[in-house]
Structure to design on (183 residues):
């Protein structure tokens, strides 16, 4: 395996998510004023961000807070064997206040279904990949998924819904050059 820095690996994970996961998902885009009645339904693929989803004032043209997927580093470790382990989390955020049909908008609490469908697609994509960003997906540890929580509590952010997919990547890390002259 080619040695990789943490930043380069996370850049490549985000690029993989943007090309392999985001195009397969499509969700409602929240209107700017937050109202659900009388607006034209707009959908989009999730925008992929590194580490966190920026606040509205930091969004650039074409960026959305929802739907979005944030690629986060939960932690990692370097082993004496030369392997680096990275614990990665993908946080999916969607806006789902209800559903639309021929009669208009109907508010409901079923946004969790849309969220679960997205988490399922994300977990399957990660679990089906042998390599992401030049690193092996550690399938022996499995792919974990569920609601995004804060200290064990699931926040009620209706009409926004948030879920997570966690997995582990293993690859080589950049060698320490200070001992090269001793070899």
């Amino acid at each position: 395996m080619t040695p990789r820095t943490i930043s380069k690996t996370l850049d490549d994970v985000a690029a993989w998510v943007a090309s392999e996961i985001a195009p397969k998902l499509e969700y409602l885009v929240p209107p700017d004023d937050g109202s659900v009645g009388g607006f034209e339904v707009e959908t989009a693929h999730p925008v992929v961000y590194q580490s966190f989803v920026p606040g509205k004032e930091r969004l650039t043209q074409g960026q959305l807070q929802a739907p979005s997927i944030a690629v986060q580093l939960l932690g990692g470790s370097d082993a004496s064997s030369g392997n680096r382990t990275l614990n990665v989390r993908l946080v999916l955020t969607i806006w789902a206040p209800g559903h639309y049909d021929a009669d208009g908008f109907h508010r409901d609490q079923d946004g969790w279904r849309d969220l679960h469908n997205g988490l399922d697609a994300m977990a399957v994509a990660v679990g089906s990949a042998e390599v992401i960003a030049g690193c092996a997906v550690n399938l022996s540890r499995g792919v974990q998924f569920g609601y995004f929580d804060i200290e064990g509590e699931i926040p009620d952010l209706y009409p926004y819904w948030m879920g997570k997919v966690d997995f582990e990547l293993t690859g080589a890390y950049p060698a320490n050059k200070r001992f090269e002259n001793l070899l």
